[in-house]
Amino acid sequence: MDDIKVDLELDLKGLLCPLPMVRVSQNISKVPVGGVIRATATDPGSLADIPSWARSTGNEIIKQEQEGSNLIYYIKRIK
Amino acid sequence: MAKELNKKAALVVMSGDFDKLFGAFIIATSAAAQGNEVTMFFTFWGLRALKKKVPTGKSLFGRMVGMMYGGDINRATPSKFSFFGLGRWMFKKMMKNKNVTSLPDLRQLAIDLGVHLYACQMSMDVMEIPREAMIDEVEACVGGGFFVEQAANADFTLFI
Question: For chain B, which end, N or C, has fewer CB atoms within 10 Å of the first or last residue's CB respectively?
Fold first, then answer.
C-alpha cells in the first residue's frame, strides 16, 4: 500500500468548508483516469466532505491518513 | 458502481442576510463540486447578492429603497447581531481570522463552478433595480414560472 503513485499533490491546508472538497473537484480532471491525487487538508470538516464528494462523483479514496493536524487523502480518479 | 452524475439542484434565495447568503453559496458551490447542475433564483432581498454597488431607483420610493437597501453583496448584514453594521464588521473579522472564504469570493467560486444565477424580474421591477445594476454573470431575469420548471426537474430544492 505504501507505493501508491501520486500524480498530483494538492495542498489544502488552512482552507475551510467548502473549499477542500471544491479544490479536489476542480483538480480531479488534471489527473488521468486511474490517476491519484494526494490532498492534504487541515479542516476536520473535510473528513465528511471529501468522502461524500467521492461517493457522489463516483471516485474513490484509496487511502486516508492523519499526521498531526494534517489529514491526507489519496483520491483515485475512477472516471 | 459509480452513480450517475448530473443531478440537479434548485435554490430560491429570498434573503439578503449575510449569514443566509453564506449558507446559500456554500451549499451551491458544494453541490456544483459534487457534479450537480445548480440553479440559484434570487428574489426580493436576495437580489442584493447579485447587485453592483450603484444607486438605483427612479421614483421617490424606489430611490428610498435604493438608499436604504443599497450597495452590493458586501453590504449584507447578519440576521442577528446586526447592530447597524457592527455585527457585519465583527463577523467579517472573525471569519477572516479563521480563513473562511468571503461572500464575494464564494459568489465568484459559484460562477467559476458553473452555477446558474437568475434574478427575479418582478422584484427588480418593484424595487426599481435595472438589469445594468446587476452583475454581468446573471444569466437572465426570470419569473416564478421559470423557477418552478427548474424546481420540478431538480433532484433537490432549497428555500433560503
Answer: N
Burial grade of B65 (CB within 10 A; 0-12, 13-18, 19 or more)? middle
Cell numbers for B157: 430544492
Task: Mark whether A17 is an active-site residue.
Answer: yes
CB distance A16–B2 less than 8 Å?
no
pLDDT, tens digit, 9 for 90 and up, residues B106-152: 999 999 999 999 999 999 999 999 999 999 999 999 999 999 999 99
Chain A environment of B99 (Cβ under 8 Å): 14-16
> Computed from CA positions of residues B100, B110, A19, A53, in that sequence, does the dihedral angle turn out positive or negative?
positive
Q: What is the edge-to-edge ordering of all strands in the sheet holding A36-41?
A: A8-12, A36-41, A70-76, A60-67
Tell me what pLDDT residue B2 has. Answer: 41
Catalytic residue among A4, A6, A16, A17: A17
ipTM above 0.85?
Answer: no
User: For position B111, which CATH number holds?
Assistant: 3.40.1260.10
Q: What does the longest C-alpha to C-alpha distance in chain B come to?
A: 61
Question: B99 and A16 in contact by Cβ < 8 A?
Answer: yes
Amino acid sitting at position A44: P
Walk me through the domains of chain A, giving residue ranges and CATH numbers: 8-76 (3.30.110.40)
Whether residues B5 and A58 touch (CB distance < 8 A) is answered with yes
pLDDT of residue A55: 93
- Looking at the complex, report in whole angstroms how far the Cα of residue B25 sits from the nearest Cα belonging to chain A: 10
